[in-house]
What we know:
This protein is an all-beta fold.
Amino acid sequence: MKKTTPFLTFCMLVCTSVGAQNLINKGNMENSAGWALNKRATDLAISYKTGEGNSGSRALKMATTDLAGDFYVVSNNTFFAVTQNTNIKVTFWAKGSSCDMEFTPYLQESDGFSLTNFPKTVIETTYLKEYTLTTQITSSTSSKYKFKIRGSDGAVGDIYIDNVIVEMVGGALRALKNDITPSMSFYPNPTSDYLNIKEKHDYEVFNILGEKIMNGNSEKIDVRNLNTGIYIISIDNIKHRFKKE
């Protein structure tokens, strides 16, 4: 099973959409270097290997024989701008010389200190497999980031990576007001089974990533099948937060 569940800080947020775009260059590893070794551990080399990527294309190879308790960092060379309270998704294809190798993708601010981790990736196969990870930028000192990969003792061996895409998901997030228009009030909140609207309205329900998961027209919304967590309900295009217990 892919390990794609991130740790997200919710803090009363609601999504607005933007067009998806790849925030980094040379993620397909075909045309130029684009990637650099930022920190050399005991023994690490990076190179490009034709035939190891998708459909026989090139892949970035990270080869490690001994980290001796140290770690390495491999970086994409593109700085890109994101704003605070933004969901970021990275998608890539990867394989290892053996299973259970691991590394941690992350975003590093240009100040060289602040960083935001994606969930740790455990390579599950010796053939290329797609991985998708999501995290959230909740603070920013510079607004400029690079995408990087950090490997530690669990990364000894060869890891191949290709088709790296970093993009914003659902766009920037903004704070959600606590007050609710009386004609749009709903209850109870939190709820474990139903949301009751004061009167019948069109509604849409979104997860925290901005993905629509329910819609309808009713005065009573059945949320029993939703997982525990924070959701956004849009009633006649007015958005509010609710919690499913």
